[in-house]
TrEMBL record:
Gene3D superfamilies (alphabetical): Electron Transport, Fmn-binding Protein, Chain A
Pfam families: PNPOx_N (PF01243)
Domain named Pyridoxamine 5'-phosphate oxidase N-terminal: residues: 3-93
Name listed for the protein in its UniProt record: Pyridoxamine 5'-phosphate oxidase
Organism superkingdom: Bacteria
InterPro entries (UniProt xref): Pyridox_Oxase_N, Split_barrel_FMN-bd
Length: 130
């Protein structure tokens, strides 16, 4: 999980794919955080992405950086604990104008049953499962 976290953190922006019925939806994300030994993302409960993940928690993440790319397939699990939300928001203070831990809107999700592959055209893939 360490290489996955480092790649996503350094890339700054990654793309999260969810399913909306039978239509895939992809959008940029920027939150990636380690908490309690798990890799977390964050969104707002009022957003479509949240509704989609509640219906179908299977997601994929993709990012590109320095002639390498990462693909992560995982199941997301919502963590309702305010301490998990607070930890995320402390790591991303720019979000604190829109989100507050325990506000009823802030959601944090950890990646479960994840397979991450970092690829390039010149090196062997790096695969992590967590």
């Amino acid at each position: 999980m360490d290489k996955t976290y480092e790649f996503l953190k350094k890339s700054g922006t990654y793309y999260l794919a969810t399913m909306d019925g039978d239509q895939p939806r992809v959008r940029p994300f920027g939150t990636i955080h380690l908490f309690d030994g798990k890799l977390y993302i964050q969104t707002g409960k009022v957003k479509d992405v949240s509704k989609q993940m509640h219906i179908n928690p299977k997601v994929e993440i993709c990012a590109f950086m320095d002639r390498k790319w990462i693909r992560v397939s995982a199941t997301v699990v919502e963590d309702p604990r305010t301490e998990a939300q607070k930890s995320m928001l402390d790591a991303y203070p720019s979000l604190q104008g829109m989100y507050k831990a325990g506000d009823g809107n802030t959601e944090v999700w950890y990646l479960k049953d994840a397979t991450s592959t970092i690829s390039s055209f010149t090196e062997e893939p790096i695969i992590e499962k967590f």
